[in-house]
Amino acid sequence: MMRIPENRVHQVLTTVLTDRGFAPGRARTSARLFTEANRDGVFSHGLDRFERYLGGIASGLMDPAAEPSRSWGGGALERWDGHRGPGNLNARAAMGRAIELAGNYGMGGVALANTNHWMRAGSYGWQAVEAGCIGICWTNTMPNLPPWGADRPLVGNNPLVFAVPRESGAAVLDMAVSQFSYGALDRYARDGRPLPVPGGYDAEGELSTDARAILESGRPLPAGFWKGSGLSILLDLTAALLSGGRATCDIEADPDRETGISQVFLAFAPPEHPGLADRVLGILEENGVRYPGRRTLEHRAESAEKGIAVDEDVWNRITALL
Description:
This protein is 42% helix and 17% strand. Helix 1 crosses helix 2 (24-39) and helix 4 packs parallel to helix 5 (122-130). The protein has helices at residues 6-19, 24-39, 50-58, 87-105, 122-130, 182-191, 211-217, 226-243, 276-286, 294-306, 312-319; strands at residues 2-4, 69-74, 77-81, 107-115, 134-139, 160-164, 171-175, 200-201, 207-208, 261-268, 308-310.
């Protein structure tokens, strides 16, 4: 890893996106989301994914000029069509609208169809808590996870986010319903490190901590075994039904062709309950437990002091695009 000033990373990504058809403001926002992912230590869904993001433009799967629009409204719940625009910009707009609706109704929901990969899922949880809201969001994916009892991918690893605000540091859970996300598997495989716990099956059908073997077999493990498998199915059904969009079984099972996915964004503006979050998380910290989101705050502080950590090979490939 190398360290680069945050404004330099943002500037380079903005320039690359502008050169590929993004309006300047949209280029800056998209670049900011990628930059913040690395700033917060989420390398697998930050700059590591930037080239794949550009590949979606080159292949015609993603329209850099397309913006989401409302297709139906029913009070606190709305349906939006992403028009296959940039997934991170569509997701940010959808959570922003859910936050607006929460200001009017106490809670707000946007179900988004026909969009693309949203990159770092946790970005939209942090967006909610920075607005003082509780946030929940999830997405379906192409079939990339064998459900419990099957040996081929039939469901998605459908990332899920829960976020709760507090002044001294929000709690934000960003998880796939596979034991490890594909981005994390890629990172472990690239670094040649074993997984800390078994993450799937190898080609012989044995549980393995070898990320590369799991990627080659295409058999990651559902988190919680049958529980993660069931959660994947229900997240997918709910996203497709609410948005009127596609379910996992309708999405092409190719990471370079994955598009037209369905997502849900919920925001809640709850009544005041002073001190509750601090008390709950404080008890955990007193007992040596790291709550979801704590490591993110540590990465932010380190990035502010030393610069953003970036894989040198990834950075060199990105700067070569200028």
